[in-house]
């Protein structure tokens, strides 16, 4: 009887400890977010890889013309040869290879069942925010200083914006990023709106910057 009583008492305690562990565990991220991280990260890796290869070819042959140099406006070569293309002392796409590769790994981990802690999500959110800031600076430089567009660069801009807003929506909804109730409710219902508006604004800037060229 004593042994049975001990076992009976021990079961609820084990269940309570298991429940406590489950409550302390981070909740799983939506699979849609995982797929978005994988796809946008892969798009960024692809664009960074192509730009890196073209950059090497340009260094070997100054007369090399990248395949995406289509006209005076859409001229990847002009962007690659600018000072802004190596703002940290090395070609910018090398940074993209590392950063976007990390995002692919994070998304793949989520698809495999990983559950990341709050600090990880905040770190990823901060990294994406830096990416958006850097892409915004590059966009301004392309439109108003270099006066040319790189299609692969545009792909990285869109990929970075999508992942930033997706991660921000997740951190706000889960409470990892403190926000008022109305903000959490907005991201719960209209998470698609900020990236759509952000990309739309960039599209309008590109359209108006070379309006005469597009309509000529």
UniProtKB/TrEMBL annotation:
Gene3D superfamilies attached to this UniProt entry: VKOR domain (1.20.1440.130)
One Pfam family of this chain: VKOR
Its membrane topology: Multi-pass membrane protein
Residue span, Vitamin K epoxide reductase domain: 30-171
Compartments, record wording: Membrane
Spans through the membrane: 32-51, 94-112, 119-140, 146-169, 190-211
Region (Disordered): 1-27
Family note: Belongs to the VKOR family.
Protein name, per record: Vitamin K epoxide reductase domain-containing protein
Organism: Streptomyces globosus
